[in-house]
């Protein structure tokens, strides 16, 4: 069996680059939200900073990724329903290559979309004191977050009975940052909501990214953020692999 992950990745990326509107479409919603919150709601939101776009950007980046991984589910669903996945299984390639190609495609395409959103944020006044190592740390956290959600996306991509079912799971993931520290400090929330907000994965991830971008340093919260990302990724990978072997193995 040959590992053809690189070949399959190249094919998937060529399809995306032939239709760059996919990347732009994913970026539109986060960019519109950023414009709305900064220029419409920003003056009324007390986030403890004079430059609200600096506070907002980390959460917007997570929403961008949560929006983008829906396309992974859609691509997998299409491959399964069209019979393409079954044909791959008859070829002398490692079966894991097929899933990894989709996951790595998600990682690359989401990275491109994140860059687009950051460029727009810069035009809106985003500024950071972070050095190159801080930015690499941010990229690492975002990469882990993307991998975690992508492996989660593989599961409905393989099991959904309809196109809508393959992508619908992403809506709660997009909504989750709203009940976190992404838009406002959790201290401003009612007690019950605050408990949930402070103990769900998005808050620790957002806080870590924000600390790296604003202060160039991060406390122990980064370990919580990494634990959430790695934990979700491992569990999702295990379930996705089991589903893949059961359905197409």
UniProtKB/TrEMBL annotation:
Residues 21-247 form the ABC transmembrane type-2 domain. Keywords: Cell membrane, Membrane, Transmembrane, Transmembrane helix, Transport. It is a multi-pass membrane protein. Pfam families: ABC2_membrane (PF01061). InterPro entries: ABC2_TM, ABC2_TM_bact-type, ABC_2_transport, Nod_factor_ABC_transporter. The chain crosses the membrane at residues 21-41, 53-77, 98-126, 132-154, 166-184, 222-240. It is found in: Cell membrane; Membrane. PANTHER family: NODULATION PROTEIN J. This is Transport permease protein. It comes from Paenibacillus yonginensis.
